[in-house]
């Protein structure tokens, strides 16, 4: 009976991440495919990918950059839209593009001796506009969650990590159990 319990646990440990991943990919695929109502499954998904590529190609053009700047300024001036647009734009740029924000992994000492630390990413080195001359902004992602906390930390409590930012993020998000 003990062996059956072990087999069940091993099967569960293997199947849960596989099935959950397949299910999430399936949901994303069907949602995107459902944007356009084609009779052929996958046609809407391919059209969406094609549209994204086409917009990427067009916006790489110098003339399109002027249009993008105009749209950017317009959205930045609309009261409620500006907050939403700039927040989403900053979040997307934090993960991809030229202005990646999570590329400076650090350990933050929570106690005076530096024995208790948390891992995070410096998102802003200069906080003088807030009157905080010797502090930095550190984002602390949460494990198993797409949330986190922004903390303001005295610079002397920061230890830069000579580590791959993606590996540090993976370690944090997995709750420290991520294997290399």
UniProtKB/TrEMBL annotation:
Q: Where are the transmembrane segments?
A: 7-29, 35-64
Q: Which superkingdom is the protein from? A: Bacteria
Q: Which UniProt keywords apply?
A: Membrane, Transmembrane, Transmembrane helix
InterPro entries linked to this entry: COV1-like (IPR007462)
Q: What is the name listed in the Swiss-Prot or TrEMBL entry for this protein? A: DUF502 domain-containing protein
State the organism named in the record: Desulfurivibrio alkaliphilus
What are the leading ranks of the lineage? Bacteria, Pseudomonadati, Thermodesulfobacteriota, Desulfobulbia, Desulfobulbales
């Amino acid at each position: 009976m003990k062996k059956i319990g072990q087999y069940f646990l091993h099967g569960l440990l293997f199947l849960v991440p596989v099935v959950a991943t397949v299910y999430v990919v399936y949901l994303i695929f069907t949602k995107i495919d459902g944007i356009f109502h084609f009779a052929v499954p996958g046609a809407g998904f391919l059209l969406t990918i094609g549209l994204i590529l086409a917009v990427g190609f067009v916006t790489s053009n110098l003339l399109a950059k002027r249009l993008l700047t105009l749209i950017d300024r317009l959205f930045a001036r609309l009261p409620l839209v500006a907050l939403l647009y700039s927040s989403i734009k900053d979040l997307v740029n934090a993960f991809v593009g030229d202005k990646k924000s999570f590329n400076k992994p650090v350990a933050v000492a929570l106690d005076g001796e530096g024995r208790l630390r948390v891992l995070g990413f410096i998102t802003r080195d200069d906080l003088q506009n807030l009157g905080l001359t010797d502090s930095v902004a550190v984002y602390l992602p949460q494990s198993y969650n797409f949330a986190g906390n922004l903390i303001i930390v005295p610079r002397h409590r920061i230890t830069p990590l000579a580590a791959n930012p993606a590996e540090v993020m993976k370690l944090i998000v997995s709750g420290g159990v991520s294997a290399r």
